[in-house]
Design a protein that fits this description.
InterPro entries: Poly_Biosynth_Transport. It is found in: Cell membrane. Keywords: Cell membrane, Membrane, Transmembrane, Transmembrane helix. Helix content is 86%, strand content 0%. It is an all-alpha fold.
């Protein structure tokens, strides 16, 4: 990977990661407050509403945004055309959700779903506007603007959400927090970015962008529908309590993974797209990303599995302890995200969005078969089945990566599994520390985290980990610059 590419990815990843941390911290605080104020059954109601909003947002966030970033000569006509089309299309989606709210509420026999879904669906047109803004910012690599907009939006929405939660508004606190955050982020981005909306529209440009974007949109829709299907089936065939434990168990690992993963890959895709004519450069970036992401993510996820019990007991209280098995299963699944996302970004960057769709269709067919088999057993077996699906999907992605960017199976395993092995050794020690020490959860977690960090760094030094040495060099460089500024 060229030094300029590396610098762009690192800087972009830093600001995108900072932006996601700022956004998710507010959601986390509000979520913890709601989890303490609401029963697991009530929280399951919130989970159901968010399933439908998330599916709707796939139409907004996937396809055209990626196409705008990938297109080499995208101009103001492209952005304006996508903006007007997105506004029109998301308006149609909102109308559909407004009328579908009635049969959805009746199907689950939950009248509150009617009003909550109709109000929260307002976020869909707002995100339609925001998706075009984000594509512009990503294309220009101006990720600091994300951070500025999110910081203001999250602070204001935090006040709104927490005040309403403590005032007894329950689910409406989360609704208000989400809408406030979306509106403020969108307004501030529109003010701060250089892109100005023009009064021009081209169906031809939409067709060109659609020829690339529709495959990614369909792939994302299939992926999200499958993920949402699991929650919908749990909510229907089991109980809302089961759904709340399943959702909460997935929430914290997803929060950790999505922030780091989104930060790195949002910055990586535009850089890869610029290098799309050089397969060797794209491959080098994919390898570097797999190694770096797995080096960072593996100890966090495996460590989180080890400290799950004292963490849940301290943060959410003992009434949420049944979510721990789902949390650990989710951590195992997310370990495989590093190679999958690196390969996915590389395939999209070289313009092979058709391959992304071709790979994902058999994965989802296999997943639904496994899902239907596991559904009749228990929610726990239902969750474990996703590990099987993840392994199958990773194998398919490795096969495709070797054909398209010459990133071989052996190289993927080498870049990925060594970091997982080091983290697993660390995790075993951390887990047994929690079993031996019988103290307050805060003290237990302190010993676990500090010991785990020491062991992982020691193992990184002994194995001469490339990612460790690079992170160490970056830290020393930042310290050197800081000391130089102080002396000046």
């Amino acid at each position: 990977m060229a030094q300029s590419d590396k610098s762009q990815v690192i800087q972009g990843a830093f600001w995108k990661f900072a932006e996601r941390i700022a956004a998710q911290l507010v959601s986390l605080v509000v979520s913890i407050i709601l989890a303490r104020l609401l029963s697991p059954s009530e929280y399951g109601t919130i989970s159901l509403v968010m399933v439908f909003i998330t599916i709707a947002n796939v139409f907004v966030s996937s396809g055209f945004g990626q196409a705008l970033i990938q297109k080499k000569d995208a101009d103001s006509l492209d952005f304006s055309s996508v903006f007007y089309f997105s506004l029109f299309f998301t308006g149609i989606i909102y109308v559909c959700l407004f009328f579908l709210a009635v049969p959805i509420a009746n199907f689950y026999n939950m009248p509150i779903l009617l009003s909550v879904l109709r109000v929260l669906a307002i976020s869909v047109p707002i995100m339609g506007v925001n998706s075009v803004q984000q594509a512009y910012v990503a294309r220009k690599m101006q990720f600091k603007l994300f951070f500025n907009a999110t910081l203001i939006g999250t602070l204001i929405s935090a006040v709104v959400g927490i005040v309403l939660a403590y005032s007894g508004y329950g689910v409406w606190a989360l609704v208000a927090q989400t809408l406030t955050n979306n509106i403020i982020d969108t307004v501030i981005l529109q003010i701060t970015i250089n892109w100005k909306l023009t009064r021009e529209f081209s169906f031809e440009r939409i067709k060109i962008l659609l020829s690339y974007g529709w495959k990614l949109l369909l792939q994302s829709l299939i992926l999200q529908f499958y993920a949402s299907l699991r929650s919908l089936l749990i909510g229907k065939f089991y109980t809302t309590e089961d759904l709340s434990f399943y959702t909460k168990g997935n929430q914290f690992p997803e929060l950790i993974s999505s922030n780091i993963d989104t930060g790195i890959n949002t910055a990586l895709f535009p850089v890869m797209s610029k290098a799309q004519d050089s397969i060797s450069r794209v491959k080098a970036m994919a390898r570097k990303t797999t190694d770096f992401t797995s080096y960072v993510m593996s100890p966090i996820l495996i460590g989180f599995m080890a400290i799950a019990e004292p963490f849940i007991s301290l943060i959410l209280t003992d009434k949420w302890l049944p979510c721990i098995p789902y949390l650990r299963i989710c951590c195992i699944i997310l370990l495989f995200r590093a190679p999958q996302t690196a390969i996915l970004q590389a395939i999209k960057a070289v313009g092979r969005s058709d391959t992304v769709l071709k790979v994902d269709v058999p994965i989802r067919i296999f997943a639904i078969m496994i899902l239907l088999i596991s559904l009749k057993h228990s929610v726990y077996v239902f969750a474990i089945s996703e590990i099987v699906v993840t392994l199958f999907g990773t194998i398919l992605y490795m096969i495709v990566s070797e054909k398209i960017i010459d990133y071989t199976y052996n190289e993927v395993c080498r870049d990925f599994l060594i970091n997982v092995l080091l983290a697993t050794i660390m995790g075993i020690v951390v887990f047994f520390i929690g079993k031996v020490i019988s103290l307050h959860p805060i003290i237990i977690m302190f010993f676990q985290i500090s010991t785990g960090a020491f062991i992982y760094i020691l193992l990184s030094i002994l194995t001469k980990s490339r990612s460790y040495l690079e992170i160490k060099a970056i830290i020393f460089k930042i310290i050197f610059k800081y000391k130089t500024r102080i002396k000046q």
